[in-house]
Amino acid sequence: MSLRNGLHYLAIPGPSVMPEAVLRAMHRSAPNIYEGELVDVTESLIPDLRRVARTEHHVAIYIANGHGVWEAALANVLAEGDTVLVPATGRFGHGWAEIARTLGIKTQIVDFGRNAPFDAAQLEQVLREDKDHKIKAVLATHVDTSSGVLNDMAALRSALDAAGHPALLMADCIASLGCDRFEMDAWGVDVMVAASQKGLMTPPGVAFVFFNEKAAAARQQMARVSAYWDWTKRAAPEYLYEYFTGTAPTHHLYGLRAAVDMLMAEGMENVWARHDLLARAIWRACDVWGQDGPLTLNVADPAHRSRAVTALRIGLPYGAQLRSWTEQNAGVTLGIGLGMFEKDDPKGQGFFRIGHMGHVNPQMVMGALSAIDMAFKAEDIPHGTGALEAASTVIAAG
Predict the structure, then answer these.
(1) What is d(CA 339, CA 248) in angstroms, rounded to the nearest whole number?
(2) Largest CA distance in the chain
């Protein structure tokens, strides 16, 4: 007998749970791509996307995933032979650097490991030592989806300013936008990339590059940018097709419109507060489980943890056992330990992640925690007791 029959819960860190309103908006026949409603829907998204990113500047929309806008952002402001500084705090910092290298861009990586954020003071020193300003951009991951590390983008801007360095500050907010507080203009971020499938609650396939006037000026200095990646017409189109350099992602746009409507109705401050409260409940449950067992939170300091994803270490063979039990018996899929390998665990199976981004509320979070609690018992994994009571107390207290 299996108890998994019923509504399945995908508790991975993206693609996230899609609201029924988004699915209903997408369940329609194909629209006219030349004039009428789709044009209005697309144009209405631009100011609201700016509100989500907290910017008054430009946004370009791409039919792509996060890797696509990594490349799009680089292609618009960096040329072959240029150098970028990459403070890495997990798998995805290295991933953006890999994309840069395929474009012939030199990468200077400062690896801060997978358990703590980057050190802005150390990065300031690196920037000060770059007397000739060979570093053209700093590629920083706001939240690394693999490690769950939350980085301080405002501190990195302060480091650039203190060093008197002109490099562009480029932020990867693929995991964090719409979940963790992000203030593009207030924090001095020049370029930011994001995607539809996490905090924006829309299926994978649409992604974004936000950029300010400093970045726009850098684009104008480029000798050549491919017609498809070029953000110039995408950010200021005369016709609908110029937003996308071709046919619009029609149904994604309807879904995205519904998702952004939900964010606007809730208000970004409330969206961030909801994610913070639910994350703290998850962390409290994990603390209790770990009191009498091997479970530990990957990031020790709560201030440096993402409110979108929690990475956990439980060791072999427990990680794979726990994930398998929750999926096969309780209908809850947890995230794999992506990039969280160790010498004795090359596939990272002693790690797992809980996604709590986008369309989540207390009963969804408590349901996932209950499934994990059941897995501890069913698989006879050592753990502390009282985790569910502790988590519910956090939520009840607000």
Answers:
(1) 34
(2) 68
Q: Is 76 exposed, middle or buried (0-12, 13-18, 19+ CB in 10 A)?
A: buried
How many Cα neighbours within 13 Å face the side chain of 267?
Answer: 3
Q: At residue 109, what is the residue type?
A: I
List the one residue out of 211, 185, 206, 257 whose CA is nearest residue 19. Answer: 257
Distances (CA, A) of 17 to 26, 259, 388: 15, 11, 22
Q: Is residue 244 a contact partner of residue 102, using CB atoms and an 8 Å limit?
A: no
- DSSP annotation of 115 reads S
Residues in Cβ contact with 318 at an 8 Å cutoff, skipping those fewer than 6 apart: 294, 350, 379, 381
Residue 345, strand partner residues: 342
Residue 332: count other Cβ atoms within 10 Å of its Cβ: 26
How is residue 162 annotated by DSSP? H
Residue by residue, pLDDT tens for the chain (398 residues) are 778 789 999 999 999 999 999 999 999 999 999 999 999 999 999 999 999 999 999 999 999 999 999 999 999 999 999 999 999 999 999 999 999 999 999 999 999 999 999 999 999 999 999 999 999 999 999 999 999 999 999 999 999 999 999 999 999 999 999 999 999 999 999 999 999 999 999 999 999 999 999 999 999 999 999 999 999 999 999 999 999 999 999 999 999 999 999 999 999 999 999 999 999 999 999 999 999 999 999 999 999 999 999 999 999 999 999 999 999 999 999 999 998 988 899 889 999 999 999 999 999 999 999 999 999 999 999 999 999 999 999 999 99
Q: What is the rounded distance in angstroms from the CA atom of residue 326 to the CA atom of residue 155?
A: 39
The dihedral built from the CA positions of residue 240, 30, 24 and 366, taken in this order, carries a sign that is: negative
The 3-state DSSP class for residue 280 equals helix
The answer to whether 293 and 384 have CB atoms below 8 angstroms apart is yes
Residue 347 tokens read as 């596939």
Determine the Cα–Cα distance for residues 205 and 63; give it in Å rounded to an integer: 6
Residue 376 Cα distances to 148, 372, 393, 394, angstroms: 22, 6, 21, 21
